[in-house]
Amino acid sequence: MDRTRTRTRTRRLPSALAAAAAALATLSCSILVGPGAGAASAEAATPVAPGSLTRGADPAVPVLAGRTITDGERTVRVPGRSPSLLGASGDGYVVATGLDGRRPVLLLDGSGRHTLVDDLGTDDARLASDGSVVVLTRYRFAAQRSRVRVLDVATGSIAQRRGFEGFANVLDADATRVVVSTFPPRATMLWDLAADRVELVGRQPGYAASLADDRLAVHTGDPYRGGCSRVVRLQDPSRTLWRSCEERVTAFAPGGERLATVGLLADGRGPQDVWARGTDGTLLQHYTVAGWFGLVQWEDTTGLLLDSHGGRRAALVRCDTDATVTDGGCERAGDLRAVTAGS
Predict the structure, then answer these.
(1) What contacts 259, CB < 8 A, 6 or more positions away?
(2) Rounded distance, CA 34 to CA 212, Å?
(3) Are 105 and 98 in contact (CB under 8 A)?
(4) CA distance 237 to 337
(5) pLDDT value at 4 more than 60
(6) 315, 17 in Cβ contact below 8 A?
(7) Which H or E run includes 21?
(8) In this model, does residue 37 exceed pLDDT 50?
């Protein structure tokens, strides 16, 4: 398995009234483009029961379980409380964690612990896919604008900053580009860091992107009011690769040829269903669990990592999306742990 890392993150603005409207819309809206149309409900699902799976190899990409990062045979203990792993950078890992009433962003590498941000506060932080920069976003409610700053991991200094109208969401970044969506106004933009120029990608707000794989997922409208999801190319957003009014993308596989999806309105602790699909919507696998799935992350082009919470036991599980439906192709990639109310 290769060691390409991909992850995505989604932000929505929930509304109880809108959720009720969306539930009706989702029942009536089942427009799927591509060979996988309608397959989600028609194909048998593979139940994932962590306690009944055999133990396989540790994950080949960095994964955080509790306060420990596991990356192949390497483990790193994260200080503080409620840590989150932003990703790998060089031979280290960038994390956000709670320390002494603050939430700093730290680089943990072979030489020790380095503070990149003293206190994240309410800011959002995303590590570039190549580990070169951390992109920090702060929403200014009174001004209804967002401030986005680019912090160089190597130097720990702010390299660039720019303001965006409305609520900004950074979807992906590398050393030279940042993908930003706003809502409102509805837009997806590409920020060229070298030229300090912003290019409009489209008027639909994106919620997941991969610069390396030229992929973008957008909402056609508010998903709580009947909006659907489209997968397009960043370089050609007018062409729809796949559209669904029932599912949304939660991770692009390295190479961009596969997707992991969850229910369009999945929320709370995590979904009970995860689908693996081709970019055109072709259904590859459908996984279910008695409790919920936490982390959903591609390990390589075909292997999917699922932090699976069953009725009593939980574990990180690896599933081969090329496996037959009958065997599921799943194994544990981590040790069993008890499911608790706070897990």
Answers:
(1) 231, 242, 249, 251, 252, 253, 276, 277, 278, 279
(2) 23
(3) no
(4) 43
(5) no
(6) no
(7) helix 16-28
(8) no
What mean pLDDT comes out for the span 264-271? 95
Residue 193 CA to residue 163 CA, distance in Å, equals 13
More confident call, 112 vs 42: 112
CB 331 within 8 A of CB 54: yes
Q: Which helix (H) or strand (E) holds 26?
A: helix 16-28
Contact 331, 56 (CB under 8 A): yes
At 94, which amino acid appears? V
Cα→Cα distances 320→43, 54, 94, 295, Å: 17, 14, 28, 16
pLDDT at 322 over 50: yes
Convert 133-170 to b/e letters by CB count within 10 Å (16 or more is b): bbbbbebeeeeebbbbbbbebeeeeeebebebebbbbb
Helix (H, G, I), strand (E, B) or coil at 40: helix
In angstroms, rounded to a whole number, what is the distance separating the alpha carbons of residues 135 and 151? Answer: 6
In this structure, what token pair is assigned to residue 35?
A: 């060979």
Higher local confidence (pLDDT), 234 or 33: 234
Check whether 277 has a pLDDT greater than 50: yes
Q: What pLDDT sits at residue 7?
A: 37
Spatial CB neighbours of 161, under 8 Å, sequence gap ≥ 6: 147, 148, 149, 150
**Paired tokens of 305:** 């990592």
| 324-333 pLDDT, tens digit each | 866 679 999 9
Per-residue model confidence (pLDDT) at position 342: 63
| pLDDT for position 343 | 65
